[in-house]
């Protein structure tokens, strides 16, 4: 195992990797920008190197500075986390060329899965099912009409260089085709500098189901089962779970074998994820492979008992995976809610400010992967995801109930967060039934937001008001007697007021 590893990231994922290193007895090096001088990942690492000003283009995206920091501190390997430089082929190559171990897939595997059309071509060549359609860019509207007729409407135009849904257009019939092709081309050109567009049959109301892969350098490639990621808004996932209500053991085996085949075809090593669309008939189609550790990896860890980040480090240092495919199956149910600094009731507007109070949930089956603490300044330089709340339960019902309980226990004051939004989703009857697809949140958002605010928000607001009133009284008091005069907010029963008094104590800090 490595003696020292550099973590080329910030926030919750930097802390997650640091914890894995600590448990493996590996020393850690953090890198940080001027905005992160007081960030927890800098304090928790054994060493830290300043790499530049706050904008990520001048700090966390400066590959050469990060490699320099690794050389300076004697780190033998670099873990990129997710986002930033994690899927840049040139960086994986530069790290390797500098004689440093890249804790991720080979640069060649990143390249093979890098573009949508190259991943699609690789899939087709290896018997991995993709959505019916073409792989070569369309020449003109005339060709589009011919191909669309062959596959049948509705069809979906996609940018070849695409990502995040940009350059995508659903076309219901031949009359709309020429206009939609023009629009998709324009959007693709401005987003990716490439106006190549191809066409697929449109899959109606599918689920987004992905398969976690672990591959070692000795030829073992394993599937760790699926994650259901359908609860998303504008291509940002908000809630993920494992397993999926839509996946039977037989389907899990089939999707797992398919994902392993795709990974083998790309020469994949380390942790990766194959994304699929799963339609109402149980048909699945490969979309693309994410060549990194993903945000939602903890739900897989909780149902398989396998520490993905520790295995990323072990695989990178040459260890063999000791598991057999038959030994891996999900136990119980795990759900993750992404806690972001966004105001759901105001079109998910990013919120900024200082975390004034933070009360973290705990208790059976609760995991908090966070990157914030009381006093953290939340600005606009980086991603609004502050933390992930993950729970495990014996079954889905228990996991949803437990997530609601844990969210109620969570208090973040100082910035708007997605907490109340998540409580409302946990109360939604369709969500509770697992009756979700990739358009579900968009369809359901208005009714979710119209739901009565969770009673806990009202309680917390009452406690905050009581706290302010108490501060006011304390300020005017001439003796210490005033501190005993605190009355918790109105409550009908004695136990409730005890809890409120305790929470009030917590808020007092
Ligand atoms: C699709 C699709 C329906 N039919 N392809 C969106 C971005 C890219 N990753 C692929 N995407 C989709 N491709 C066909 N033929 C619907 C989507 C899609 C989607 C996929 C996964 C997760 C969220 C999504 C949200 C909207 C559309």
Outline the structure in words.
The chain has about 500 residues and is an alpha+beta fold. The chain has helices spanning about 10-25, 40-45, 65-75, 90-95, 105-115, 115-125, 140-150, 175-190, 250-265, 295-305, 310-315, 395-410, 420-425, 430-435, 440-450, 455-475, 495-509, and strands at about 5, 25-35, 45-50, 75-80, 100, 155-160, 170, 195-200, 205-215, 220-235, 235-240, 270-280, 285-290, 335-340, 340-345, 350, 355, 355-360, 365-370, 375-380, 385-395, 410-415. It is built from 17 helices and 22 strands. An eight-stranded antiparallel β-sheet has the order 13-12-9-10-11-14-21-19. Helix 7 (about 140-150) packs across helix 8 (about 175-190), helix 12 (about 395-410) runs antiparallel to helix 13 (about 420-425) and helix 16 packs across helix 17 (about 495-509). The two termini are about 40 Å apart. Residues about 480-495 have low confidence and may be disordered. Bound molecules: ligand MV4. Ligand MV4 binds near residues 200, 202, 287 and 438. Ligand MV4 binds near residues 277 and 287.
Task: Classify the helix fraction into a percent range.
Answer: 25-40%
Q: What is the average of the pLDDT values?
A: 92
Major sheet attributes: 8 strands, antiparallel
* Oligomeric description of these chains: single chain
**What would you call the shape?**
globular
Cα-based radius of gyration, to the nearest Å: 25 Å
- Strand runs, count: 22
Report the uncertain regions. Answer: 479-496
| Bound ligands | ligand MV4
Distance between the termini: 41 Å
Helix and strand content put the structural class at alpha+beta
In the sheet with the most strands, the strands line up as 13-12-9-10-11-14-21-19
With helices defined by DSSP (H or I, 4 residues minimum), what is the helix count?
A: 17
Strand residue percentage: 15-25%
